Amino acid sequence: MHVPKDQEKYQQLASKWLDKTINEEELRVFNAWYESDPDGSIEIPESFAQTEVQLEERMLKRINDRIHQTSTYSLWRRISIAASVLLLLGIILYLSMYTGTERYQSPLTIHQDTISPGKNGATLTLANGQQVKLSDIAAGAIQMEDGTHLSKTADGQLLYDEGSSANSLAVQHTLSTAKGEMYMMTLQDGTKVWLNAASALTFSPTFNVQNAREVTLTGEAYFEVAKDKKRPFIVTTKYQKVTVLGTHFNISSYEDEPEIKTTLIEGSVQVSNLSSQTSVVLKPCQQTIVHGDNTQVQQADVGEILAWKNGDFVFGKDDFEESMRKIERWYDIEFVYKESDVKNIKLDGWISRDSRLADVLRKIELAGNIKFEIKGRRILLMK
Q1: Residue 1 falls within a domain, yes or no?
Q2: pLDDT of 36-61, one tens digit each?
Q3: Count of domains for the chain
Q4: Closest CA to 321 of 381, 242, 367, 240
Q5: E-state strands within 200-323
Q6: pTM for this structure?
Q7: Are residues 136 and 242 in the same domain?
Q8: Alpha carbon of 311 to those of 59, 120, 150, 227, 262: distances in Å?
């Protein structure tokens, strides 16, 4: 088979497209190449079928045959199977997402507008049980029934006022996100908190305690704690307590996960296992995994841990079911496993949390030799 002289150029463009780093000029060139006459100077490999449907079927078979030789699957890494395979993969994705025509559309793509990604939103519950849907409140100053003063910024964040008149030690607020929501708030002491989907943080609006600033977390949150040498910041979850003076760290403590993971970004934290009554002190880029009486310390991939806060899913060390649970929380869906051995797949790669669900599932399909069938908000998963 003759290899076109400028094939490397289009391989690079295909790779950039896969990485979402292609610019408008490069996309124009790539589009022009695709629309050019294949009988001219650019010779297409024999695996290029007569129709796009045939093309996808042949490509999926070739990729899956190669993938079966390993136990780890990549979402869309730069596949080194063969230069033509990478090039054709770019063409498939180009056809399915970048062209404005109806040349090709899979069953999943048909549903791409039905389930959108999560959004910024949360509910604030006051001590008297009053619930405030923050997405329904306009930006500006807000006074709660219990006397608390706070404000909502133009970009939707919640900011507690240092001059709040709520001074009872019994006053507690809870900020909670549903599935498909995340939210950022600034506490009265200046501490910033990002709540992931299906999470809740309970706290005093004024931290009116002399010796400590205490909050309670379920789900996942990232903290940038304001320094206060006289009052440590304490985060309590179901099975552990984290104590800091001023630092950045992430805690994942979902009820449907078997472990609690605390990852230190900078500074220092003490993690106490409430079951074993033991404690460890973390250094930056270290992570504790608390499971029952056991506390394990390991090095952490900070970029992977904070991907949710930065707008991505990153799958590497997580097992398949844990990766799927992350997608469930963000899109407010439920995966139903039709075959148990599907759970043994290992994913490796990233997906933007701004993507529609159909696009996410398509990329996982291409990587893991699995299929999804959308039925409302229930997603059937099979080989």
Answers
A1: no
A2: 544 433 333 444 344 444 445 544 44
A3: 3
A4: 381
A5: 200-203, 213-224, 233-236, 240-244, 248-253, 260-266, 269-273, 278-282, 286-291, 294-299, 312-315
A6: 0.71
A7: yes
A8: 30, 12, 26, 27, 20
Tokens read off for 161: 């006022």
Give first-to-last CA distance, the chain, whole Å. Answer: 33
For residue 357, give the CATH number of its domain: 3.55.50.30
> Of the residues 105, 131, 152, which one is the last residue of a structural domain?
105
What span, in angstroms and rounded, lies between the C-alpha atoms of 271 and 223? 15
Question: 97: domain range?
Answer: 7-105
3-state SS class at 185 = strand
How much is the average pLDDT of 316-339?
91
Contact 285, 303 (CB under 8 A): no
Q: Evaluate whether residue 301 is within a structural domain.
A: yes
Q: Tokens for 75, please give them.
A: 């979402």
DSSP bridge partners of 381? 337, 372
Asked, for residue 328, whether it belongs to a domain, the answer is yes
pLDDT tens-digit series, residues 248-273: 999 999 999 999 999 999 999 999 99
Decide which of 305, 328, 359 is a domain's last residue: 305
